[in-house]
Amino acid sequence: MYITIVVLAEKYRDLHLSNNPEYPQFIVGPDIAMLRVDVLSARICNINDEVIKWNVGSEATKKLTSQASQQF
Amino acid sequence: MPSSSSVQNSHINTAITIALFIAPIIYLSRQQKRLAKDHQTYKAEREAEVAFLSAQNSSAHPLRPPLPDILRRVLSRCKFAYLSTVDAACNSSHLSLMRFTYVASEEVIIMSTNRKTKKYDMLEKQSGVALLIHNFQEVSPPTSPKLTGEYSITLNGSCSVVKDGKFDIMDVCLLLLYTKSV
Fold first, then answer.
1. What are the pLDDT digits (tens) for B23-55?
2. Is the Cβ pair B128, A15 closer than 8 Å?
3. Is the pLDDT of residue B165 over 60?
4. Who contacts B149 (Cβ-Cβ below 8 Å, separation ≥6)?
5. The pairing of beta strand B108-114 with beta strand A32-45
6. Closest among B98, B42, B81, B48 to A46, alpha carbons compared
7. What interface predicted TM-score (ipTM) does this complex get?
8. How many Cβ atoms from other residues are within 10 Å of residue B117's Cβ?
9. What pTM did the predictor assign?
């Protein structure tokens, strides 16, 4: 008996496909990898050149960066 | 003198005519009310966003998690991003136009790429990325949230390839048996 365990990548793939149903050629296939970006910092700017900055903090940055380097 | 059945028929005809005339008017007026309500909500959201940006603009200290609502809203509305990757020696950079999905519950951005690409090769060696997201003005249905082309977001993040594939339970059992026997 074969029962399939769907891993996180497939959950993300389904979510990404439902958000972009017009582009399955870029989302589904044996050579298509799912990428996950953990956001460390952000800047948002409006047309009045008003900018706000955001970041996760140095501890979280270290943790997320080391996790990402281990994934590859 | 008209018979009672012909009078009844004429009443039915009048009722049908009135219904056919009034129904579209009611439908249009309800739709207009809904649109006006959506417009008011959108205007209030925009005013709140502008006030928030103006208030935070002078602040020297960056904001901390969670992501502010304005960022979440723009990320949820947008679908395109420019992804910047660099090579391991930081000698050259590469740009790719990507479709993305913002997963609000995990505060992550997901994308997909073919493994036989330059960006994938670069990501294998260097996981630091930048993303540029702009809510380009586009024609959208009147009821959906409008993209006004007002904001640009630059994100820096750590990109990882999510382990993929579907594992069969038999494979997992065999792997467990193998690891126990070793």
1. 889 999 999 999 999 888 878 877 777 777 777
2. no
3. no
4. A47, B134, B135, B136, B137
5. antiparallel
6. B48
7. 0.80
8. 15
9. 0.69
